[in-house]
Amino acid sequence: MFNLNIKKSISIILVFIVLILAGAFYLTRGMTWSSLEFVMIWVGAIIAMHVVITPLVISIVRARDQRKAAEEEAAKQQSGNISKD
Fold it and tell me: Which of 70, 71, 61 is nearest to 2 (CA)?
């Protein structure tokens, strides 16, 4: 379903997400949940994950749209060839 580049991108992004989460857990391991520093670290981690995930989602959607357009074009050409026969 996905080509090799998208699978590679997904793997790299998953590694980044795990690193972001591990870093956030490491930085907040001894903090109280109600401290402002704790909240800011987790807000930063969520923003960082959003920044990392967005390009992947865009590339997956573009690849899907290109595949659908190619399938529609092939269907149009095939139906045009059938009607000419």
Answer: 61
Estimate the crossing angle of helix 36-84 against helix 4-27, to 10 degrees.
Answer: 170
**Nearest partner of 13 among 62, 52, 60, judged by Cα:** 52
Confidence label for 75 from pLDDT (cuts 50, 70 and 90): confident
Contact predicate 58/44, CB 8 Å: no
pLDDT exceeds 70 at position 19? yes
Taking alpha carbons only, the member of 3, 17, 10 closest to residue 57 is 10
59-76: burial string, b at 16+ Cβ within 10 Å, e else: eeeeeeeeeeeeeeeeee
Q: Nearest-5° angle of CA 6, CA 11, CA 16?
A: 120
